[in-house]
Predict the structure.
Amino acid sequence: MNLTLRVWRQEHAQISGAFVTYPVSDINPDMSFLEMLDVVNEGLIARQETPIAFDHDCREGICGACSLTINGIPHGPNRATTACQLHMRFFADGDTIVIEPFRAKAFPVVRDLVVDRASFDRIIAAGGYVGVSTGSAPEANALPIAKAIADRAMDAAQCIGCGACVAACPNASAMLFTGAKVMHLGLVPQGQAERSDRVLRMVDQMDAEGFGGCTNYGECHEACPKEIPLEAIARLNGDYLRAALSSREEDAA
Amino acid sequence: MQLDAKIPSGPIEQKWTKHKFDLKLVNPSNKRKHSILVVGSGLAGASAAASFGELGYQVDCFCFQDSPRRAHSIAAQGGINAAKNYQNDGDSIFRLFYDTVKGGDFRSREANVYRLAEVSANIIDQCVAQGVPFAREYGGLLSNRSFGGAQVSRTFYARGQTGQQLLLGAYSALERQISMGSVRMFPRTEMLDLIIIEGQARGIVTRNLISGEIRSFLGDAVVLATGGYANVFHLSTNAQGCNVTASYRAHRNGAAFANPCYTQIHPTCIPVSGDYQSKLTLMSESLRNDGRVWVPRVQGDRRPPANLPQAERDYYLERKYPSFGNLAPRDIASRSAKEVCDEGRGVGETGRGVYLDFADAIDRLGEHTIRERYGNLFEMYERITGENPYHLPMRIYPAAHYTMGGLWVDYNLMSTIDGLHVLGEANFSDHGANRLGASALMQGLADGYFVIPNTISGYLATAHPTPIDTSHPAVRAAEAGVAERIKRLLSIGGSRSVDSFHRDLGRIMWEHCGMARNAAGLRTALQLIPELREEFWNDVRVLGVGESFNQSMEKAGRVADFLDFAELMCTDALHREESCGGHFREEHQTEDGEAKRNDHDFAYVAGWEYRGEGKAPLLHKEPLTFDNVPLATRSYK
């Protein structure tokens, strides 16, 4: 396959970037998208040009490191597929492919296609956990959880923290990411004690990081490689409302 | 150098309890006066850092990824073993211990393995309490499945993403401590050297991967949880960033490296498709619960699988190992696949593949059940190969996956350097010469949640480290060494990329130190590796500057260490004149091609001491005794 790539190049966060065009030839359709970039980089190195920086690690769709917007869509055109699992057979010979980093104010560019997603870690640190120190756990089977509930919790817990939801959202909202954790821990009995506190603190942190609000476009779900359901956002809103009202009641009392 | 394992006295069932009582404690108000550096944030590192923080120590945790949640533990698929005996099928701590010692082909340390089995049940309790959504039965209780090398169902799982869910549990515990200020987290920060002062590990030199800044961190103890070295093969199931650098730097500073030749080749991976290949994708071993492995009976039979009648198929694992069948341990399953492909009976374009067929299971259980059990794995397979495994059998082939060898540690998980502790895949202790499926997650979390939080206090209470700061000459010297090496890599200005060297090294290692090894091949490798290393240091091309985000630079340092380490691995493989577990020496096999151990001469841990560049490493032996699981020839027939 022969392709034309238009790739965002930016040396660091403090200067502006621009698209650079690279003609690419002899691409094998069985390559993954990142393997195609490897081949491009080998060519750049051979010509003494700085290779394109991009985040990647597991290359099997689970670590959440890869963060490419391909032809305007985070992770590219295939449903439920990270960029590392996208294969070149889904493109046609002669295509022009535009590659950008995940764009959001809360994800500053580090270099080229690499962004800083530490804001996600800070949202989890604000409350995305069950406060159980090592050694204090009761016997695992002492607390049965209906299979249907455990399965729903797992649907939400599958989030890989890649940030495609934010990159896809016209508001750069992190509601699907935050909602996925709120839904996971809100469904299981272990998460109940901190449920109100958790949602209030995580939403506060989300706002402080500069993510936008949700206006129900649903683009996040479409882009999500793990198909986190929009129900996560509904649950986040529900929990937030309940927590905000009850904490006001507690303040009044 | 002495390899004193410091195994507590007494019957095996009481060693850990007794040892915990005997260990000196650090009182709660003194804990905050001690600082601990944890390198790595996978299952072992994150669980250790979180647990230290909960206990009240000051913790600095480092990872090279952009977030601790991306450590490669995240990719473990199948499950985690624990001796809960929820299935009432005869499991016990002793049986898990027994299976692990036997599965490791009698090359692990009994006392460590027993402790691992002993704390396994606590791990499940801890993870469930964190909200990890394990698979459940309709009654709401936890579900189990079987894994290779065991005849009981003791594996807990969360769909095909068990590692992800366990890591996110440990990560959430870690983030909780970060928010409470007891752990400082340094992502995109890579350890490039170890700092030793007065014989004690006291710090690390790091490179900030965004700015390129070289910075030292000091503490009272250093904990390495930096994973395995399977990427020495270039193509492996490991993440691209997995590397041996932290372990190898510790080795150069005096930590013995144990059994580097023990590597695990996983039987069920998607076969190589081309030269551009950057990684091999694992298909979980859990698939062997319902998938049947076969190849055509006759060599060169290229008919599509559906056209082969049952009588013309060879279900070779079921035939050779009737009692374990498709669930034979990994080393045996891998070698058998290699054998049938060597005989010319392999399938797929390259002939390096075997079928993993679900047709019978779909007939028996229905597509719905199979989808529920393995849906995400089937999707992943289809995404990569373009073939639908509900209709066509999968094609699989072995690939480098896990490394049982690692830095030598004693019962307290301390290396031969005082204060340097090593956890998880980075150490050597629990899996012998072959790891059983679903035991890596167990070991990582056992080390991090339940072992090191106890044993570190024994060290800190007695070590009396002297107060130091970063102006200490040893710190300055280590920093200068790191800066010098980076400068050197950038100034070579050769003609070949870092990746091209990594690829060449991988080919040498896979060919000569892979699934089957022999003396001639290993000697060839020991000649080729130094030549390649020489070429690397004269002709590698690393563009850009050190003071910036520079991925070629990062990788150059890692490949340079692999080039050194590969030689150690081959040296170890050449010296071990026996076959055991994942280490198969062609000269040492039984008449029917099974591994032939030599307990008389080789029932020991090989701990290698670094003696300087260009000098042969020195072998030290820790004899292994088997008082509780009698030495026997492993049989899965």
Observations:
- The two ends of chain B are 42 Å apart (CA to CA).
